[in-house]
Amino acid sequence: MIRPGSRCPRLRFRPGPRHPGPRAGSRAGAAPLTAALAVLALCGSFVLPAAASVPRPGAKPRAGSGSVLLDETFQGSSIADPGFMPLDTACLTGASGPPPAGESTTGPCTAADQTTPPVPTPGVTPGWLQLTDQGNYRVGAMLYNRPLPGNGGLVVTFDQYQYGGNGADGIGFFLVNGAVDLTTAGADGGSLGYAQRNNDNGVDGGYLGIGLDAYGNFANDFENRGNGCPAGSRSPVSVNEPVTDTVTLRGPGQGLDGYCYLDSALTPDPGKPSGFVSTLPGNLRQSAGPGITLPDDARRRVMLTVSPDPEPLVTVDIDFNDGKGYQQVLQYQMTDPAPATYKFGFSGSTGGLSDTHLIRNIQESSVVPLDQLNLVKTVDWDPTRGTVPTYQVGDTVPYKFLVTNTGAEPLDPVSVTDPLVTDIVCPSTALGPKGSPTSSMECTGTHVVTVNDSFTGELTNTAVAHGTDPSGGLVPSNPSSATVDVVRLTPELVLSKTASTTEAKPGDTVSYTVTATNTGAIPIDPADFTDDLSGVLDDADYNGDATATVGTVVPVGKTLEWTGTLNPGESTTITYSVTVHDPDQGDHLLHNAVNTTIPGTTCTPPPPAPAPAVAATPTTGAGTHRASRATTEARTDRASRARRALTPPCIADVTVAQPNPTPTPTPSPSTGVPTPTPTGTPTTPAPTPTSTSTTPAPAPTPPGGGNLAATGFAAAGVLGAAALAVACGVLLTTRRRGRHNS
Question: Are 335 and 386 contained in the same domain?
């Protein structure tokens, strides 16, 4: 049935197996045709849904289509974003003095280990981020110790320059879990600031390292790289030899373990000492020569794409400054879940061989567009300690809320709300425009695990942020959730539900009693349940008299809702009543159910109802009474089965008795109308005087008495319906012919 005002259903036609159609005039095709005509008559038309556009699995995300998260050129005299932290020889060539207060601490390139040529002239803009000069055994790194959201994936683009020396070592770029305090890089040399090397640790919270490796040791597992990795995650390079000019990916690691080999742009070559050769379509470094301008001609533009999937697809594209644009050099499907937020870093080093290493124009954006106000909620745990902790009742869960403005205008004020975290503190009340040093901030808050948090073995809660744009418009964020494991405690709540009777008459008052008892050893706070009256109020009125011995009970729509605290051994009793309509025009069944979301709850069924008394069968209307009794017994049986099958809900059903119909009095014989002689045992008729009569003899009563007339009416209805169906078929055929001929 299509209700007035409802939306018409879409009819979808799908090809099926071919089969013979129904014979002409048969009923096999009448019902579907009639149903289709009815739908079309009511809807007026039907719409075939358009096919949805589904991304191809493994398809490469489009760079540049997401939201800008960070934009730094490194070409000025200072770096405004204090999140950038220089290590060792890293410096800013355009700087001419100490950095301004409140900005990055990256200073000028004026120290003795920063000026070995060829390097850019210090103090001249536009400049570069310089990781190392051309001196031997140099190490320099730039860390970004502010988290970036990972819920939209990540696209990182930057220019790298390596030139001037004899080809060592290379530049490493790495992503780490945004939960760590990123203050140190990994080992230098062939580990490129990401992986471990001998007894030197890799970077904290490492997730993905990309080695832009001119010398080529990042691709092999010597110097303890990849310690503890399984056989399937070991480098194919089995000798301690470099594979020069390669791009290699390494996976998650911590300390001296992990940082396993993932993939590399190389291919077997038995003629090489390593047994492999690079497959890159260009060089990562630039040699000096006629017509070469350094460092400009050494630019190689790198694009790293990390898809927003839980286990992301990683793609590396490089523009080799040869006029061919970006060329894909690697693609790898991660098998480790991505962190919720990222931090990143660059590292460059030299050894016995050397090169100058520079960086410019880093931009980071999401793969897919984010909300103007983006929120990522995480549990504030230290990934360097291993697995996420399991909490128990009474423990404090620390949370972080990364709020990012991806819009072109500032937002002020900005706040974060979470129903379970009431002590949220943010470092600021405003956010700057996208890509700026103030476009994001990290708020903190805590929650103490309660008994009720432990019922399911995990705790999940959701936060949302709100901002206001310069015009006063409200800017909500996406909701963001975090889940922690909790030591599970099992509550023991027992519900029971009874009614004052199992059968009522119109005008009667029926009283209900609901009892909830905590039979366990732990408090239930808050405890709650609902009493659904939607199956009662079609036959009765709630009298507004609900009371509870413990807690609070209130009517909400067609339900009664109780909330409160139940300590071990404590009970609450709720009572209320309803009055049956007179006359009752509902379904004559007060169906009443109590339910709760508290896990482990059981329902104590009420005692079985006594068998209904069988009334004396009246001499008239017996068929109607039997039908009524059968209906009542069927409802009672259904209610009994429901009580046995559903625990909870607790169900207490009451049948509303229907008054028996008043028998129709037998009409008295009318004067002058002969009464038919009842059929009986044949007897010899008495002699009757011969006479002439004009009164016709009454027609014989057909078998079945008055039921025949009803049967004839039903047959006429069926014949009428059949005639209507045939007419509709003729009309449809005529309309189809008309369309075909038009």
Answer: no
Do residues 93 and 122 touch, judged by C-beta distance below 8 A? yes
Domain that holds residue 642: 493-607+631-656
Beta bridge partners of 416: 465
d(CA 550, CA 177): 48
- For the segment 279-288, the average pLDDT, to the nearest whole number, is 96
Are 178 and 297 found together in one domain?
Answer: yes
Q: Are 277 and 168 part of one and the same domain? A: yes
| Tokens 């570069």 sit on residue | 128
Same domain, 333 and 426: no
- Give the residue, 387 or 56, on which the prediction is more confident: 387
Three-state secondary-structure class, residue 50: coil
Q: How far apart are CA 104 and CA 87, in angstroms?
A: 12
* CB contact set of 318 (below 8 Å; sequence gap of 6+): 247, 280, 282, 300, 301, 302, 303, 326, 327, 329
pLDDT tens, residue by residue, 341-395: 999 999 999 999 999 999 999 999 999 999 999 999 999 988 888 778 999 999 9
697-727: pLDDT as tens digits = 444 443 333 333 333 333 334 334 434 443 3
The first and second tokens of residue 127, run together, are 């400049």
Contacts of 539 (CB under 8 A, 6+ apart): 580, 581, 584, 586, 587, 588, 589, 590, 656
Nearest residue to 358 via CA among 52, 34, 142, 76: 142
pLDDT of residue 607: 58
Residues 567 and 436 in one domain: no
Residues pairing with 375 in the sheet:
403
Asked if residue 183 lies in contact with residue 203, where contact means CB atoms within 8 angstroms, the answer is no
Which residues, in sequence order, are bridge partners of residue 200? 197
Give the mean model confidence (pLDDT) for residues 20-27.
36
In this predicted model, what pLDDT tens digit does every residue of 634-664 receive, in sequence order? 444 443 433 333 457 899 999 999 877 655 5
Same domain, 578 and 466: no
What's 404's domain CATH number? 2.60.40.10
In angstroms, what CA-CA distances link 227 with 185, 206, 222?
18, 14, 9
Report pLDDT digits (tens) over 590-609.
999 999 989 889 998 765 55
Tell me, yes or no, whether 152 lies in a domain: yes
Q: How far apart are CA 316 and CA 345, in angstroms?
A: 16
C-alpha to C-alpha distance for 80 and 94, rounded to whole angstroms: 13
Residue-level pLDDT at 384: 87
Only one residue has tokens 């008054």, namely 659
Whether residue 306 sits in one domain with residue 183: yes
- Local structure of residue 430 (DSSP, 8 states): -
For residue 575, the cross-strand partners are 513, 547
For residues 132 and 129, give the distance between their C-alpha atoms in angstroms, rounded to a whole number: 9
d(CA 145, CA 150): 15
Q: Please report the sign of the dihedral spanned by the C-alpha atoms of residue 679, residue 680, residue 681, residue 687.
A: negative
What would the 3-class secondary structure string for 329-353 be? EEEEECCCCCCCEEEEEEEEECCCC
Residue type at position 542: Y
Amino acid, res. 419: P
At residue 387, the pLDDT reads 79
Taking residues 447-456, report their average pLDDT.
93
Better-predicted residue by pLDDT, 422 or 27: 422
Tell me what pLDDT residue 663 has: 58
Per-residue pLDDT at 252 exceeds 60: yes
Whole-angstrom CA distances from 452 to 548, 552, 579 are 22, 19, 37
CA distance 103 to 85: 10
